[in-house]
Amino acid sequence: MRLLIVSTQTNENASTFIKLQYQYLQPFKILHSGYKPYICDGKSIFDFPLNNNLFRVFVKKFIPILYTFFYNKALQKFLVQNEFDIVLCNFGTQGSNVSPACFKIGLPLIVHFHGYDAYVYSILKKYKNKYNAMFKRAARFVVGSNDMFNQILFLGAPKEKIVKNLCGFDSKSFVETSPEKNDKRLLFVGNFVEKKAPDLLVKAFSHAIKKVPDAKLIIIGWGKLSNKVIATIKALGLEKPVQLLGWQPTEVVSAEIQKARAYVQHSRIAKNGDSEGTAVTVIEAAGSGLPVISTRHGGIKETVIEGVTGFLVDEGDWESMGDYMIKLLNEPELAGKMGRAARNHILTNYTVERQMTILKKIMHDTLAK
After folding, report:
1. Which of 24, 65, 209, 285 has its CA at a distance of 20 to 30 angstroms from the CA of residue 36?
2. Nearest Cα to 339, choosing from 188, 231, 198, 177?
């Protein structure tokens, strides 16, 4: 099967879930960077003059219809020359961009939604017409949670074309820990953006540390809300117990998971509509054997079994989150019991091997039609 995987990101900077696709699916070619223009094997797939930055920007700004025409022609040429059997496109936005060319030459297209592409209001407004066309043209749409299934169904995707496939956990990179033996350390990993609400997480911890004065909160990540997070930490006098490590490689994240009592994350719907698809770090922490304290949000509601593998609170309820922090910090045996249940739940339902097997089946079934 000559598979083409399309992504918005370069091969080197691709998200973990996309890199796992490259590793397990072994595509014939990888196409990335979209309208910038598309890059394959280190070079633009567009011929002159479309591969000239000044010309491309000018035409795209002042004659968008002509640009779209050039774009689709170049993409069609690339697809035909490489004789692909099927295309797997990550993110609905990119799927809507490549669907006209795929449809024109009769090439089956599978579009994998991941998060912002299904929820951010400005994206949905900008891509409304292109999404409507894509929903008619593409063969399948892959989602990682019930929430996202319902969301793209609401947006207009035919129900019979939507396939749910849970996000994969890479057990080779994250080994099992014993939270009951670890210190009173809580861990969060993620981008400092509104849908992660890191400032509310700090507030929840400030509530917990009043009852558990020797607790620590380790935060790995950075982002647009960094100044707000730092200001919140200072205002609450938490400079010592809260450690900001910035962005760290997978090995450091895995090592910090090994030392934690529980994983904490206060996800919520952002003002612009952005929402979690499937919270990968929640899966990685739970798969490593940590109980999770989070919110009833997006795919997290499926990843965490309330009262069994962790605790969930309503979005914005940081005080209740703080109460559950106190509970797991003070009850190591419960943390261990929940952590083992969490790992079992993830290894049963969220392994990368399971995810890729289902993705391969989706592609083979699509080609068999």
Report:
1. 24
2. 177
Q: Confirm if 58 and 68 have CB atoms less than 8 A apart.
A: no
Q: Strands, E, within 252-366: which ranges?
A: 262-264, 292-295, 310-313
Nearest Cα residue to 2 out of 80, 70, 57, 113? 80
Domain ranges (residues) in the chain: 3-168+351-368, 179-349
| Distance, CA of 291 to CA of 263 (rounded, Å) | 6
Place of tokens 């094997």: 41
Q: Give me the CATH topology for the region 179-349.
A: Rossmann fold (3.40.50)
H-helix segments, the chain: 16-25, 53-62, 64-82, 92-105, 116-119, 121-126, 128-137, 146-155, 198-209, 226-235, 250-259, 280-287, 300-303, 318-330, 332-349, 352-368
Q: CA-to-CA distance for 354 and 356, rounded, in angstroms?
A: 6
> Are 196 and 265 a contacting pair, CB within 8 Å?
yes
Rounded average pLDDT per 10-residue block, the chain, 369 residues: 88 78 93 78 82 80 86 92 96 94 97 95 96 98 96 97 92 92 98 96 98 98 96 97 95 96 97 92 97 97 97 98 98 98 96 94 94
For residues 275 and 119, is the Cβ–Cβ distance under 8 A? yes
Q: How many CA atoms lie within 13 A of 87 on its CB side?
A: 33
Q: What distance in Å separates the CA atoms of residue 255 and residue 187, rounded to the nearest whole number?
A: 11
The predicted pLDDT at position 37 comes to 67
Residue 255 to residue 174: CA distance in whole angstroms: 9
Query: Radius of gyration of the chain from Cα atoms?
Result: 22
Give pLDDT, residue 54.
81
Taking a C-beta distance cutoff of 8 angstroms, is the pair 84, 28 a contact? yes
Q: What is the pTM of this model?
A: 0.91
The Cα 11–Cα 20 span in angstroms is 11
Specify whether the backbone of 33 is left (phi greater than 0), alpha (psi in -120 to 50) or beta.
Answer: left
Structural tokens at position 142: 């892959």
Single-letter amino acid code for the residue at 339? G
